[in-house]
């Protein structure tokens, strides 16, 4: 009897063991499955992030597409997945990698191929055309069928039916459509790049190809303003324009973004700010910072060969200061930079690149390379520039009459000749206010021996008490010497 009773505790233990096992299973298994799923999901997410990061497309995730959407790879109807906010491709998660490899995004700059520069073809992508778009061929509505169908050019936004698509359309030149006057064409940037390599900066000539109406638009939007509506807005603009001209100010500060203006012809660019008051203020500050540079000039201002000499000299002195401790050596080196400039010829045809106004009157310039504005009679190591050789009659130069003397030089050799009194400068005139408009290209400038490279700008020189004030407006590209202040408190007070 007793023997029969003994196994009972073991049995109970055995049954307990079962219970524990089952309990463990029923608790652990779901935990394990959940853990496994989340691990897989995070791995997939990492993988997707990796594709996003390396991709040339501007991929973004969405949990729900707002329109009926079909995957550009497998053509299935999809509810969620990724879309490119530059070219508008839409894809499900599984096809993302394929889509990324198979389709090109908007090329913000063309590959350096001279043939491609003049004629850019449409860039067609298939499917998901916007609602209410019409075929360029048959004028009927596009994208009305519930499947992946019809084409849209990602530059000009033209749409065409599958059955209306033909080779002639594929080889047709893209005219950038409705917004052609606002878009910076990829070919423009390629040409600019080439010009920079060739050390040419005549952007106006390049822009003239695009016509007088061309006023490229720069978008500065804050993705964080307006309950994150900025993000969507940025995408819309990237789709309609060249993505290069659309900036999220939280990622690229306005001062940096506005540097794009320096690649555009003078007075051509327009800036659209999307955001709250704070964003607008931020951008306006950046514009001020770029536009108004103010200097006090005591002796002279110049643009052209002597400023270039000073600039080259300055750059090399910064590199090897010990070399420049001797005065005689300094003069020799300076002279060397003068002659080097003859080779560089960066200041050629200055008269075509600038407009000069003396007391509000436009002055026609002969073929000059440099302009010098003097407050005192002396320039370049004690030479009386205005008088020149002293063999001609000229209005008297005095530094207390409030008049500025403006002279032109024909080149660095002419500069040197004037310095040793072997030539006369070209006397342009005397004035109270001198305005110099640099229309295009980079020019060497200097104020009282402080040189810098200056992009398109307007320089206004007027008297302020007994010092001269220079106002720079336009695109400053070189952040050299400067002290910025409010334009209001620098009125002419002579
Ligand atoms: Zn797919
Ligand atoms: Zn894309
Ligand atoms: Zn097109
Ligand atoms: Zn059609």
UniProtKB/TrEMBL annotation:
Reaction equations catalysed: 1,2-di-(9Z-octadecenoyl)-sn-glycerol + ATP = 1,2-di-(9Z-octadecenoyl)-sn-glycero-3-phosphate + ADP + H(+); a 1,2-diacyl-sn-glycerol + ATP = a 1,2-diacyl-sn-glycero-3-phosphate + ADP + H(+)
Instruction: Outline the extent of the DAGKc domain.
Output: 212-294
What is the enzyme's class at the highest EC level?
transferase
Pfam families registered for this protein in UniProt: C1_1, DAGK_acc, DAGK_cat
Which GO terms fall under biological process for this protein? lipid metabolic process; phospholipase C-activating G protein-coupled receptor signaling pathway
The catalytic activity of this protein is classed by the Enzyme Commission as: 2.7.1.107
A molecular function GO annotation: ATP-dependent diacylglycerol kinase activity
Q: Where are the transmembrane segments?
A: 20-39
- What metabolic or biological pathway is this protein involved in? Glycerolipid metabolism; Lipid metabolism; glycerolipid metabolism
Which GO terms of the cellular component aspect does the record hold?
membrane
Keywords from the named record: ATP-binding, Kinase, Lipid metabolism, Membrane, Metal-binding, Nucleotide-binding, Repeat, Transferase, Transmembrane, Transmembrane helix, Zinc, Zinc-finger
Q: What is this protein called?
A: Diacylglycerol kinase
Domain (Phorbol-ester/DAG-type) ranges: 56-105, 121-174
Under the heading Gene3D superfamilies, the entry gives: 2.60.200.40, 3.30.60.20
InterPro entries from the entry?
C1-like_sf (IPR046349), DGK (IPR037607), Diacylglycerol_kin_accessory (IPR000756), Diacylglycerol_kinase_cat_dom (IPR001206), NAD/diacylglycerol_kinase_sf (IPR016064), PKC_DAG/PE (IPR002219)
| Superkingdom of origin organism | Eukaryota
Assigned protein family: Belongs to the eukaryotic diacylglycerol kinase family.
């Amino acid at each position: 009897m007793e023997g029969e009773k003994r196994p009972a505790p073991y049995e109970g233990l055995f049954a307990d063991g079962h219970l524990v096992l089952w309990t463990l299973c029923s608790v652990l298994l779901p935990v394990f499955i959940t853990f496994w799923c989340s691990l897989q999901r995070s791995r997939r997410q990492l993988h997707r992030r990796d594709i996003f990061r390396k991709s040339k497309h501007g991929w973004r995730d969405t949990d729900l597409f707002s329109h009926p959407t079909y995957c550009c790879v497998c053509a299935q109807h999809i509810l969620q997945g990724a879309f490119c906010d530059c070219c508008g491709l839409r894809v499900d998660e599984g096809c993302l990698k394929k889509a990324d490899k198979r389709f090109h995004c908007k090329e913000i700059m063309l590959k350096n191929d001279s043939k491609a520069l003049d004629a850019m073809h449409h860039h067609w992508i298939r499917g998901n055309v916007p609602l209410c778009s019409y075929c360029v061929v048959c004028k009927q509505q596009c994208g009305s069928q519930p499947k992946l169908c019809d084409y849209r050019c990602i530059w000009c936004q033209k749409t065409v039916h599958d059955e209306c698509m033909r080779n002639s359309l594929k080889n047709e030149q893209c005219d950038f459509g409705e917004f052609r006057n606002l878009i910076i064409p990829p070919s423009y940037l390629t040409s600019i790049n080439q010009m920079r390599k060739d050390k040419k900066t005549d952007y106006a000539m390049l822009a003239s190809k695009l016509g007088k109406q061309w006023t490229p638009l720069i978008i500065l939007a804050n993705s964080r303003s307006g309950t994150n509506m900025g993000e969507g807005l940025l995408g819309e603009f990237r789709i309609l324009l060249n993505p290069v001209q659309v900036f999220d100010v939280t990622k690229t500060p306005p001062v940096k973004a506005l540097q794009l203006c320096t690649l555009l012809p003078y007075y051509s660019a327009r800036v659209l700010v999307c955001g709250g008051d704070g964003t607008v203020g931020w951008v306006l500050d950046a514009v001020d910072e770029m536009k108004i540079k103010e200097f006090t000039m005591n002796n002279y201002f110049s643009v052209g060969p002597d400023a270039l000499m000073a600039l080259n000299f300055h750059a090399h002195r910064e590199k090897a200061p010990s070399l420049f401790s001797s005065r005689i050596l300094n003069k020799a080196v300076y002279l060397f930079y003068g002659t080097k400039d003859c080779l560089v010829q960066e200041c050629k045809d200055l008269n075509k690149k600038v407009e000069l106004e003396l007391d509000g009157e436009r002055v026609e310039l002969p073929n000059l390379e440099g302009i010098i504005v003097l407050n005192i009679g002396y320039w370049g190591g004690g030479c009386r520039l205005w008088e020149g050789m002293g063999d001609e009659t000229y209005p008297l130069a005095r530094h207390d009459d409030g008049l500025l003397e403006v002279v032109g030089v024909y080149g660095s050799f002419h500069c040197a000749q004037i310095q040793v009194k072997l030539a006369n400068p070209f006397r342009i005139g005397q004035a109270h206010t001198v305005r110099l408009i640099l229309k295009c290209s980079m020019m060497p400038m200097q104020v009282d021996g402080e040189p810098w490279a200056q992009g398109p700008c307007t320089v206004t020189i007027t008297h302020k008490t007994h010092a001269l004030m220079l106002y720079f407006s336009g695109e400053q590209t070189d952040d050299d010497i400067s002290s910025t202040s409010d334009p209001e408190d620098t009125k002419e007070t002579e």
